[in-house]
Design goal:
10 helices; 9 strands; 46% helix
Amino acid sequence: MTQGRGLRRPVVLLLTLTLVGGGVYTAVTFLQRSETLVSERCTAVVGSQSAELATDQAVNASLITAVAVQRGLPPRAASIALATAMQESKLRNINHGDQAGPDSRGLFQQRPSQGWGTEAQVMDPYYAANAFYDALEKIPDYQSLEITDAAQRVQRSAYPRAYAEHEGMGRSFASGFTGQTPGAVHCTLRAPIDAGDPAAVASELELAYGTLGTATDGQSLLVEASGSQAWSLAQWAVANAKDFEVTQVDVEGHSWNRNAKDGWQDSDAAPGQVRITVSPVASEN
């Protein structure tokens, strides 16, 4: 009997270790699969209206809106631009046209043959957005027009009413990205893959918004801003979080955390600045 008990103990220990090891493996596998199954997207909620974009579309929407903010244009201009770009290119910087405009290119499907610029220029999202706003500002009453009518006056499309389909999306994301509606835009993202670089975030921010007062603090970029400008910068950072490995954005008593996946939350974020924190290390997955 003593010998039998002695043999059973290592067997029991082995089985226990196997079960524990299997449980750990199962848990890790489950977490990895759960992460993979995260549906990445960005949402803008303004009042009772909600709109959703894929992450690459949201990046372009934030860029188009940032150009409007840099130019000092009203949110209405950004709403028109976003609705136009969604209709023309699905908010993607495509390098081809269609039968109606075979030389059309870029976010707004601008045609070099119609004087919009060279092919290389209209494929530059910043050039394309500025070219669109240049044309829009030549319409004296564009702010009082229906979005689809203003867009048509700029684009002169064969389908003049098509822009109306995207008015709700345009208004919601423009309201968030201009900072008129704090906390409107949030994104659901998977965990970062690579380490982020605060300097890279600063460079892209200044390209989008112009000169800003910035400083770095470890893995965080600090930007001097308040009010609607602060919220514009903060929501731009959320929309660009995937590309720049942003993990958290803090602004005026609120924070967006990439891991939380539940939008903006109250926090002790200091007023007068936006803090954009990036991942310090690459993922091991």
